[in-house]
Design goal:
The complex is a heterodimer of chains A (505) and B (148).
Chain A (H helix, E strand, L loop, with lengths): L2 H24 L7 H6 L6 H12 L2 H5 L1 H8 L2 H6 L4 H16 L8 H8 L4 H34 L3 H50 L2 H11 E5 L2 E5 L12 H14 L4 H7 L8 H31 L12 H9 L1 H37 L7 H25 L1 H7 L4 H17 L5 H23 L10 H18 L11 H8 L1
Antiparallel strand pairs in A: 1-2
Chain B lengths: L1 H23 L3 H20 L7 H28 L17 H21 L1 H4 L2 H16 L5
The chains are: A mainly alpha (505), B mainly alpha (148).
Chain lengths: 505, 148
């Protein structure tokens, strides 16, 4: 990489970090209550919430990791990246219900909604919090490690200094502005991601000549070698299923599309919206901005395939370098935009998961364990302390313990889905979802997530080559429904009248 | 209303394991089609107001989306099988004829229905009147000493 490109990347990244910090500080004035500080509850319009939601959903892995997966296996993963319709689906399914719950009582976390729906069940809140914490901390560690490595590598900086610099600023503005600040900075970062994506997508068409040229090149390429590295390309590689069994495409379609409604970064933003009737507009903003970022990952994967198929670049020794190789081929401006997008994606997801993890430890878990609920002021102080402590520990662990990050990487999207579907999706769509049913469903989710984690470490192959979490999600949902059919706690006639109105809304 | 809800939830409870087993067996096209039905059941539950779904909202975006996606998966499978092991004799906007449907119907079609359609028909999903009535109902429940 040229010195000029490095200067551009450092300058733009520094500006992104500084502006994010200033937005976080500015947002402090909005975060004057526990609800505003923890949840940004009913504070924002559809543009801010839409961009923030997209930015929190599209993690650094989407920009850095997915092009490598597309380079390695073809199109199955494009189902995941082109899942922009998922936002509209999520809001149609649960948008008005979640937002309406914020009218029943003070809501500043997902645990508060669980309390309102399930008659303050401490067990449900505790288990759900534990599973959510596992998923959130996994995402957080992955963002920190991925981006610190990337920036340390390209700029030649010390890895630890880079990590603490980027995420130290992030921790600082989250402590000051809370989740309200988090939502606003994520909206800014989402805007950077969307705009940069559009420009790189245009670059793809200029450099390759379009998808037809990529298909022609892949169909004609055959088997390519570079020393011990071999890459086999064909037209089949670019059909809808790529080189993986079709059921993997099925999972990569269903889990992101339906699973979006179960992601905390989407659920929490539903109650951050000021006017619930703006939910469709929010869906449109999130979908359109996601469409650009999702398509970016696809064109970068296709771009890498084109470069290798046409012999401009030898077959890649490591598929996960595909995004970097392709960005480098476009020149300094594309490198700048690519690294800016990756940084914005990592910061937005990390801030969201840091805030959610800190909220779980500072608020939801102590409440679930029966500890006294402190005053608003005390809650905010605890949250700030926890954000700082958890933030520093996460950065330190992510930067120093590779195996821990790899282990945590087992948990993620599917883990979060297995915890939220019983509580929120079934709980807010079905009057019959009982306290006992949901308690059993999320207990199964917790146990199976840990069990599958152990099996994954043993290299266990799950049936059909499908990801393990699919089975866990199915089990938690089926158990919730089955047990609910035979139990009645906080369900049917025992349902709170106000909650009943929410479910009927 | 409760019966309709329970019937839809039972269909969800049945569809998930069926899709999983079909996936295990490699029957991915039927699994994808049933996945659309699974999502359809969720959408109906979410769009339902006091046990009813607005018929216009049901037709567009919900049914239009479901039809587009089923068509998308069937066409992807058809063209993947037709051109397996060979270069396709034509492309659609430069895409492999199997993958083109992922772009046109799954991605763009999905946005045009579930995002644009949802936005255009937003009042049928939640009208000002419905929201105001909900808030006044909650206020009344509070006044009457309800838990909320």
């Amino acid at each position: 990489m040229s010195t000029g490109a490095k200067i551009l990347i450092v300058g733009f990244s520094f500006a992104t970090i500084v502006v994010s910090f200033l937005i976080g500080v500015w947002a402090k004035k909005k975060a004057d209550t526990a609800q505003a500080f923890f949840g940004g509850t009913a504070l924002f319009g559809p543009v801010v919430v839409g961009l923030s939601t997209m930015a929190a959903v599209a993690s650094a892995f989407a920009v850095i990791g997915i092009p490598g997966i597309i380079y390695a296996t073809g199109n199955p993963m494009t189902f995941w990246m082109l899942s922009s319709a998922a936002f509209g689906m999520a809001y149609i399914i649960l948008g008005k219900k979640v937002r309406a719950m914020a009218e029943l009582g003070p809501v500043s976390s997902l645990g508060d909604i669980s309390d309102l729906r399930f008659d303050k069940s401490r067990y449900i809140k505790a288990v759900m919090s534990l599973v959510l914490f596992l998923g959130c901390i996994a995402y957080l560690a992955a963002q920190i490690k991925g981006v610190s490595e990337m920036f340390a590598h390209i700029l030649g900086w010390n890895y630890y200094v880079t990590g603490f610099l980027i995420f130290g600023v992030l921790i600082a503005y989250m402590i000051i502005g809370g989740e309200a600040g988090g939502i606003m900075t994520q909206a800014f970062q989402g805007l950077i991601m969307a705009v940069a994506s559009v420009i790189i997508i245009v670059g793809f068409f200029v450099v390759t000549g379009g998808f037809g040229k990529v298909l022609e090149a892949a169909a004609a390429a055959g088997t390519l070698t570079n020393g011990p590295v071999t890459k086999k390309l064909s037209a089949d590689f670019l059909n809808a299923w790529g080189v993986l069994p079709g059921q993997v495409s099925m999972v990569y379609m269903l889990i992101p599309i339906l699973g979006t409604v179960g992601q905390p970064q989407v659920l929490t933003r539903m109650y951050a919206l000021k006017n619930p009737r703006d939910m469709p507009r929010l869906g449109l903003w999130a979908a359109v901005s996601h469409a650009f970022v999702g398509f970016l990952a696809v064109v970068m994967g296709f771009g890498a395939i084109y470069l290798v198929a046409t012999g401009k670049v030898p077959p890649l020794a490591k598929a996960d370098t595909a995004a970097f190789v392709y960005a480098d081929s476009l020149g300094a401006w594309a490198q700048l935009l690519f690294y800016a997008t990756a940084l914005a994606a990592a910061m937005s997801s990390a801030s969201m998961f840091l805030s959610l993890s800190a909220g779980i430890i500072a608020k939801d878990l102590p409440e679930a364990l029966g500890m006294r609920k402190p005053s608003d002021k005390e809650q905010i102080s605890r949250f700030r302390v926890m954000m700082g402590v958890l933030g520093v520990i996460s950065v330190a662990v992510a930067l120093t313990n590779d195996s821990m990050v790899a282990i945590l990487g087992t948990f993620g999207w599917g883990t979060l889905m297995s915890a939220t579907f019983p509580v929120f999706v079934l709980g807010l769509l079905w009057k019959g979802a009982s306290k006992e049913g949901v308690a059993c469903g999320i207990s199964v989710a917790l146990v199976l997530n840990i069990l599958c984690f152990a099996l994954v470490q043993q290299k266990f192959k799950f049936p059909g080559g499908m990801p393990w979490y699919f089975n866990v999600i199915v089990a938690s949902i089926v158990v919730t429904i089955l047990v609910s059919l035979f139990t009645k706690g906080a369900a049917g006639k025992n349902l709170d009248k106000a909650v009943e109105k929410v479910i009927e809304l | 209303m409760e019966r309709k809800q329970t019937a839809l939830v039972l269909s969800i409870g049945l569809l998930w394991p069926v899709i999983m087993v079909l996936g295990w067996k490699g029957a991915y096209l039927p699994a994808m089609i049933l996945s659309v039905l699974l999502m359809f059941a969720h959408l109906i539950l979410g769009a339902m107001h006091e046990g009813k779904v607005d018929p216009v909202f049901l037709a567009y975006p919900i049914l239009a989306w479901a039809a587009l996606w089923i068509l998308s998966f069937v066409l992807s499978a058809y063209y993947a099988d037709l051109f397996r092991g060979t270069a396709p004799s034509f492309s659609i906007l430069g895409f492999h004829p199997s993958f083109a449907w992922t772009v046109l119907t799954y991605w763009i079609g999905g946005i045009l229905t579930l995002s644009v359609g949802y936005y255009l028909l937003r009042d049928r999903w939640l009208s000002e009147e419905t929201w105001s009535k909900f808030k006044s109902d909650i206020a009344e429940i509070r006044k009457a000493g309800g838990k909320a």
